Amino acid sequence: MSSSSRPLTLPKSELDACQLEQEHVHKVYNEIAHNFSNTRYKPWPRVVDFLCSFSNGSLILDVGCGNGKYMNIRNDIMMIGCDRSEGLLKICRDRYFEVFLSDCMNIPVPTNMFDGVICIAVLHHISTEARRLLALKEIVRILKPGGQALVTVWAKEQEIDNKKSTYITKNAKTCPIHTKNETTNELIIHTPRTEFQQPDCLVPWAKPTEKVLRYYHVFIKNELEHILNHISQVKIINSYNDDGNWCIIFMKIA
Ligand SMILES: C[S@@+](CC[C@H](N)C(=O)[O-])C[C@H]1O[C@@H](n2cnc3c(N)ncnc32)[C@H](O)[C@@H]1O
């Protein structure tokens, strides 16, 4: 629930979107930074493969780098990270990673700067399509022509070709499914480890003593492609589903 304990609804304005993300993304990641970081140590193999595709000396930005779990995959490329959470950035700095505070919709770096960008599990925290487009435009802007980005987001579809994702199969619970009140556009609270009922929802993070809710927009198949189609200078190289996540690799063309 919001601090005023009114039910949360989908944003109807830019201000609503900023407030929802501030309360249910940025504030939450700061509160859970250490707890979250302790659960995030295993790099995803296909992200590692992508990072390994760059030549020695490449300059790569990890947008929404979290605790920096991809920052030291290679010691022959230059990785820089940025994130909105001061709590997670502190963890990165304690590990001697090069990071800076930034929103992914407005990254304070020059145009055409990076050989590569990764943005892993970040865009699903942005609450309107216009803002998700802004974030992708920003990634394209900062890439060099010929540079490539890998963007991954949580998928609404957690079962592909009759194979359920690890998220659904691991520790499956039989909790009640929350349904949306169509008349009020209220955001539902997602029951963890179950199929998503709606693309926009609040996902509980169980801390030892209390529950906090993170806002998610889970993406449907081809939704990332649909948004990228609005941006010139983009050539899609590959798109795939990786265990409950939609992933896309694209190149900035001159
Ligand atoms: C699920 S975590 C993923 C962290 C990391 N990329 C990983 O793969 O472990 C989402 C991250 O996105 C960051 N984030 C959310 N909204 C953001 C925004 N608007 N700008 C920058 N970072 C953001 C959060 O602070 C958090 O670190």
TrEMBL record:
Q: Report the domain of life of the source organism.
A: Eukaryota
Entries under Pfam families matching the protein: Methyltransf_11 (PF08241)
* Record protein name field: Methyltransferase type 11 domain-containing protein
What broad taxonomic lineage does this protein's source fall under? Eukaryota, Metazoa, Spiralia, Gnathifera, Rotifera
Q: Where is the Methyltransferase type domain?
A: 61-150
Please verify whether the record's keywords include ATP-binding. Answer: no
Which GO cellular component terms, listed alphabetically, does the Swiss-Prot or TrEMBL entry include? cytoplasm; nucleus
Keywords attached to this Swiss-Prot or TrEMBL record, sorted alphabetically, are: Methyltransferase, Transferase
